[in-house]
Amino acid sequence: MGDVLEQKPEAAGTRLTGMIGFTVIWIGQMFSLLGTSMTAFAITIWAWEVTQEVTVLTLIGVFSFAPTILMSPIAGALVDRYNRKKIMMTADFAAGLPTIAILLLYVTGNLQVWHLFIAGAIAGTFQAFHFPAYSAAVTMMVKKEQYGRASGMLSIAQFASTIFAPIVAALLLTMIGLEAILIIDIVSFTTAVLMLLLIHIPQPPISEAGRKGMGSIWRQSIYGFRYIYERPSLLGLQLVFFCINLFGSFGNTVVTPMILARTENNSIILGSVMSAGSVGGLVGAGVLALWGGPKRKVHGILIGMVLVSLFGGLLIGLGRAPYVWALGLFLSIFFIPIVNGSNQAIWQAKVAPDVQGRVFATRLLIAQTSVPIAMLLAGPFADRVFEPGMMAGGNLEPLFGGLVGSGPGAGMALMLLIAGVLGILVGLGAYAFRAVRNAEDILIDHDAEPSTENENQPITK
């Protein structure tokens, strides 16, 4: 095609950039994540009370998550072609519109479970643009040695916003209702969009990798696959994440209904346990922000996966009291920022900034395609196999009753136990592959490869 797209640099003017600009984005995202977490918690409680089915909760997750995965290649290509700040603003605003629709349906008494499927699919479609745009923007705003700390700050925003979200949402549900939580969410994502107006995100120069990836939108959409496939270490890392996400999501999907089933739908206990997990994530993110992560990032990924699976699968699955669940979530989520931050630092250092939108979107697709698969499996397995099997007199209860007990929630606890064991095997088994354990040595940093153009150079499609 002969048409030309120019990546005109956004005029910085008086807008903020660098670490100060990144901090402004960070604050806006913290507000947005607070509202999103409260809404997700409240919607889960509402759907559980209406249906009492794990499958319904998993379908809400699948409809929200699957479009993000499916849209990732196209989203990544568009992120690299156009202004990343504007894409972030558009995506954040559009992803928040379904919350307004849910609010209107609820206050008029017309909200049904299937509405949540549609709303989740719409929000998930636009969220596909957020991760590649956000990750690529961070690369252009902070120095390479600050990547680990920036990831830690992003995790702080994520977990700080969710510490109080479950308990506050649970209290608001009992005192005021779902509509108050939805209104808070609308205000929070609007704040995040407005904060983006204050900052400047530089456009990246064109690298040799970027030149190779030029072409039509469809050719650019598949470029991320080719880029990763040609680098076995990057592919190996993402296949490890594919496996850990498969087993982890199989267990994580049933944590909320397990707690509700074992506490007679006590939303206060659920909120307290979830908040404990968020505190663990915040502490882990704070450690990462101050520390920057291990020198060998691969160790942060693989050993972190083992510890997340140990505490988030085995300990929670074996536990039969709220304080054990809270401890398990605290310890497991403590290590998640270190796992993700270590992985993010490798990709930001090794992948040229002008192709990070496409490559990071494909990276998301490879690593998280297993999540909706696990969700779809977890619901039916919980409702039809593990829960009936772990009731008194069930076919699984004689074998595993001594480990996880019996009755409501015991089957889901057994699912967590199985997921934890498999996750530990993934983290340890990945060390057997040289392409993974030596990824940082095998891959070359992107700034070791000189750019061939400047940011004003037009890109031919």
How would you sum up this structure, described in words?
This protein is mainly α and 461 residues long. The chain has a single domain, classed as MFS general substrate transporter like domains (Growth Hormone, Chain: A, Up-down Bundle), CATH 1.20.1250.20. Helix content is 77%, strand content 1%. The chain contains 20 helices and 2 strands. It has helices spanning 18-51, 54-81, 84-107, 113-141, 147-163, 165-175, 178-196, 208-212, 217-229, 232-252, 255-262, 267-291, 297-318, 322-350, 356-368, 370-389, 397-404, 410-429, 434-437, 439-442; strands at 4-5, 459-460. A two-stranded antiparallel sheet has the order 1-2. The protein is globular, with a radius of gyration of 22 Å. Residues 1-13 and 450-461 have low confidence and may be disordered.
Quick summary of this structure?
This protein is an all-alpha fold and 461 residues long. Helix content is 77%, strand content 1%. It has a single domain, classed as MFS general substrate transporter like domains (Growth Hormone, Chain: A, Up-down Bundle), CATH 1.20.1250.20.
Task: Give a short account of the largest sheet.
Answer: 2 strands, antiparallel
Estimate percent helicity.
over 70%
- Let me know the number of strands: 2
CATH overall fold name: Growth Hormone, Chain: A
CATH class, anyone?
A: Mainly Alpha
Give the low-pLDDT segments. 1-13, 450-461
CATH architecture: Up-down Bundle
- Helix count, DSSP H or I runs of 4 or more residues: 20
Task: Report, as a whole number of angstroms, the end-to-end distance.
Answer: 6 Å
Secondary-structure-based class equals: mainly alpha
Task: Calculate the mean pLDDT score and round it.
Answer: 83
Shape: globular
Strand order, main sheet: write it out: 1-2
Name given to the CATH homologous superfamily = MFS general substrate transporter like domains
Radius of gyration over all CA atoms, rounded: 22 Å
